[in-house]
Amino acid sequence: MHLFSCCDIEFNLDRGILAVRETWNSRTAFVLAAIGSAIGLGNIWRFPYVAYANGGGAFLVAYFVCLFAAGIPLLMLEFSLGHKTRQAAPGAFKAIHPRLEWFGWFAVGVGFLIVCYYAIIMSWCVNYTWEAATLGWQKDPGQYAVLEHSIGETELEDMEVLTPVPDEMLGMPYTDPIDGSECLIGDEGTILVAFDGRLYGCSTLDNANTFMGSPGDFFFNDFLGLTSEPWKMGQFKWPLFIGFVISWIAIVACVWKGTKTVGKVVYFTVLIPWGLLILFIIRGVTLPGAGVGLHYYLTPVWENLMKGEIWLAALTQVFYSLSVGFAIMIAYGSFLPKKHSIAGSAFIIGIADAATAFCGGLAVFAALGYQATKLGVHITEVVSSGPGLAFVVYPHIITSLPGARIFGVLFFLMLLTLAIDSAFSLLEAATASVKDKWKISHKKVNLIIGGLAFLLGLPMLTGSGLWILDIVDHFMNSWGLTFVVLGEVIIIGWAVGAKKYRNYISDNSNFRIGQWWDICVRWLIPMGILWMLFHEVKARAVPYGNFGLRSMEFVFGWILILLLPVLGDILANARGKAREEPE
Ligand code: PHE
User: Fold this and answer.
1) Element (H or E) spanning 278, and its range?
2) Which of 325, 363, 429, 508 could cross-link to 481 by cystine, CB 3.0-4.6 Å?
């Protein structure tokens, strides 16, 4: 029971101690930390693709509506929950009702499983920074390079793509080295590839990529050693392990002393990727063909606004991108000083995240336009999202630019700095929760939780890593996140009362929040979430990716989701500790 609280010092009679809650060094530090958590790989490799696939400019409209109707109200909810209770997620829900502590642990669990694989992606980035410096992804000639199929001698360098096709070669016959088809140069899709002093014709981009021992081949086969199915372990990849160790050391170091360290680190982890993003936008839009890409990215297809999918895609992207529903923003809110403008910060963070995602799209689509123009193919042939974009398509593009190595290194540094503050925000959410309950020193908890996540990540360094990562990612982001957000809005919007919370937010902001907030929290968000869940169930009636509905992989995902509340309950029932351990 808190008897009185003054500034950030609280006298707790039950515990008989004077507890000082750590707080952010400044408002900027807090805002940057939350922005850092929100902007991540999703802004670069997910948003642009989702926007393009859902009708470009029209998607932006849907995105902004969802941002203001769901994302920002939820940010306010999570910040105020932490701010009011001065506890990370488990303690915050316990303060609402003692029987709700497990729910807080559930949210922490979802975030914890995410950081297990986020660090793996960081390890890929660490390795690719090196691969970029040495252009390692293009050193192997394609395994299919059979000289009989050559169509002429050339002076070109090894592994060069020849565009446009020279006039004098039009109409010459060639045999595609990959599928053996007989073609004529100039027919649609012809790509000429120089290799070993000879010229080959390929009839599709895929064939050309395979022929060249493309970055795709390198990424999936050499680098990851991806196996043909999830239950085949394949090889343990030591370079990935080294990158993984480096990533974890960096993550733990960034949160070593909690907000004190985070508050300083975020100036670098937010400002550096912003700077680099500007560089990549400038580089992108000055490339020939950039306009083609931007046209596809931004041309609005207004009819799409009438379709359900675009709204679903926008809502999912808003939740994922703002990092709500992972216990992070509750923990970050709990470190706010008493006086703070919660609503103002939520708006700044939401808008900064959206602007970064939009700019990420400019950089990506300008480069994709260049690639499509260079190869003389349609943009749909080069567009991609997820790891395929960052680790396959982009390396392709970078390789053909002047200053390839430097741009490659900077690109992966940008991804690393984008990812690290998302990763450490997840660790901090878990650390703060454990620390609140057991009063262990911050450093010790960092090591314990970081160590546990490290161990759980090890299987993802094998050939089946990408499979596992994909399943965990899918289940945590579709089911885990939706359950948490739904629980939050039901608890706050209905059980506690939206109006009461709105008043609290208004009292702790520079301006008052209107009734719209209640409508969003009580009606719009729950309805959106239920719709997401319904859609998810419907979508899963067809096989999940390559897996059948009832396959073991699917069961594995569900075990994870169902295990989390059980673990949450165990942790909630475990006895906490009253005494503070010295740092
Ligand atoms: N918001 C991050 C992004 O856009 C992803 C993320 C989700 C990070 C959850 C942490 C927790 O990439």
Assistant:
1) helix 259-285
2) 325
* Selection from 231, 238, 233, 252 nearest residue 115 by Cα: 252
* Dihedral angle over CA of 449, 454, 456, 459, nearest 10: 180
CA atoms within a 13 Å half-sphere pointing along the CA-CB vector of 558: 10
Which amino acids bring their CB within 6 angstroms of ligand 1? Answer: 37-38, 40-43, 114, 320-321, 323, 326, 422, 426
For 506, half-sphere exposure in the C-beta direction (CA atoms, 13 angstrom radius) is 13
CB count within 10 Å of CB 20 equals: 11
What pLDDT score was predicted for residue 158?
61
- In the β-sheet with 9-12, what is the strand arrangement from edge to edge? 2-6, 9-12, 17-20
A 10 A CB-CB count for 202 gives 28
**Each residue of 43-69: pLDDT tens digit?**
999 999 999 999 888 999 999 999 999
Q: Output phi, psi for 193, to 5 deg.
A: -125, 125
CA neighbours within 13 Å on the CB side: how many for 581? 15
| Residue 94 Cα distances to 42, 89, 489, 521, 527, angstroms | 32, 8, 16, 20, 26
Q: Where are the beta strands (DSSP E) in 185-309?
A: 191-195, 198-202
3-state secondary structure of 514: coil
Which residue's C-alpha comes closest to atom 8 of ligand 1? Answer: 422
* Residue 248, both tokens: 């974890």
Compute the distance from residue 514 Cα to the ligand 1 centre, in Å: 29
Tokens of 66: 């969802």
- Tell me the DSSP string of 472-496: HHHIIIIIIHHHHHHHHHIIIIIII
**How many whole angstroms separate alpha carbon 140 and alpha carbon 369?**
26
- Specify the pairing of strand 17-20 against strand 173-175: unpaired
* Beta carbons of 183 and 151 less than 8 angstroms apart: no
pLDDT per residue as tens digits for the range 194-229:
776 677 888 888 888 777 767 877 898 889 998 887
Residue to probe by mutation, ligand 1, list 63, 324, 422, 425, most atoms within 8 Å of CB: 422
In the numeric block, which tokens belong to residue 446? Answer: 């960092």
Q: Report CA(149)–ligand 1 centroid distance (Å).
A: 47
Q: Which atom of ligand 1 is nearest to the CA of 423?
A: 10
| Kind and range of the H or E run holding 580 | none
Residue nearest to atom 9 of ligand 1 (CA): 323
User: Residue 176's Cα: distance from chain center in Å?
Assistant: 38
Q: Cα(541) to centroid of ligand 1, in Å?
A: 27
Average pLDDT over residues 458-466: 95
Q: Report whether 451 contacts 74 (CB < 8 A).
A: no
**Rounded to two decimals, what is the model's pTM?**
0.89
